[in-house]
Write a structure and sequence with these properties.
Protein name: HTH merR-type domain-containing protein
Distance between the termini: 93 Å
Number of helices: 11
Keywords: DNA-binding, Repressor, Transcription, Transcription regulation
Structural class: mainly alpha
Low-confidence stretches: none
GO molecular function, one term: DNA binding
InterPro entries: DNA-bd_dom_put_sf (IPR009061), MerR-type_HTH_dom (IPR000551), MerR_fam (IPR047057), TipAS_dom (IPR012925)
Number of strands: 3
Largest sheet: 3 strands, antiparallel
Radius of gyration: 29 Å
Oligomer: single chain
Pfam families: MerR_1, TipAS
Length: 258
């Protein structure tokens, strides 16, 4: 053994890695220590440097396959590897954020004095998860249709809403849309110019009033385009409370009024 080579026990002390981890990394081809005449592993300076880089990359969240590609300089470019890792960490952050929001929803119920057994606790977490999932689905959908101007306007409008509409209740608002959507479904075969259909349009416009009071032209334009394309939203799309048929019927009722 040369003075520059270290046995596995010394490498364990220097790197903080276990002997089992070192053997595993060797099996994965991430490090290739030398061998003594008796078959014992020895690690030279280059092996130690490679292990230190491996540790840094693993702490940054890279997978072992990505680490191997980076250390060997082959496969995907470094830029591609980093971009993939950013995307992976972003997805992980969203999952963590979803879990946090679910727990905050549960905590709010506890703070309201609700006594929770295990079944209720799990039910609340599940309910919170559904709410967060719905919010995520809406974001994914609006990202497809809203221009950057509209997204910026929506962010500003959301800030103004807390001042302009302090008593606004999103759950109650969504419930009203579902109720109206049911009424429209029942009236799909009626005359768009008829009294009943026009009354539904009036109710529709009343429900839209909170949005229209804050909406910019970009917001109105992009939202109109988004709902006009409802049949192409996909299976995971959120439920706005009404069907594409109900939307098209209301558009015909509007045309009949004018």
């Amino acid at each position: 053994m040369t003075n520059e080579s270290l046995p596995i026990n010394d490498v364990v002390r220097r790197t903080g890695l276990s002997a089992r981890a070192l053997r595993f990394y060797e099996a994965r081809g991430l490090v290739s220590p030398g061998r003594t005449s008796s078959g014992r592993r020895v690690f030279g300076p280059a092996d130690l440097e490679r292990l230190h880089r491996l540790i840094i990359l693993k702490q940054a969240g890279f997978s072992l396959s990505a680490i191997g590609a980076i250390l060997d300089g082959g496969g995907a470019s470094l830029r591609q590897v980093v971009e993939m890792q950013i995307a992976a960490l972003g997805a992980q952050r969203e999952r963590i954020g979803s879990a946090q929001n679910s727990l905050r929803h549960t905590l709010s119920r506890i703070d309201e004095g609700e006594r929770l057994d295990a079944a209720t606790f799990c039910s609340l977490i599940e309910q919170g998860t559904r709410i967060v999932t719905e919010q995520t689905n809406w974001k994914e959908l609006t990202d497809r249709y809203l221009s950057e101007d509209a997204k910026s306007d929506f962010a500003a409008a959301d800030t103004r809403r807390h001042t302009a509409l302090p008593d606004f209740d999103q759950a109650e608002y969504s419930s009203k849309w579902e109720e109206l959507g049911g009424k429209i479904e029942a009236a799909l075969g009626s005359d768009p110019a008829g009294e009943d259909a026009q009354a539904l349009l009036t109710e529709w416009e009343e429900l839209l009033a909170p949005f229209l009071s804050l909406a910019t032209p970009a917001m109105t334009r992009d939202v109109q385009s988004m709902y006009a394309d409802m049949p192409n939203w996909g299976d995971d799309a959120p439920n706005p409370g009404f069907s594409p048929e109900a939307w098209r019927f209301i558009e015909r009722v509007k045309a009949a009024r004018t």
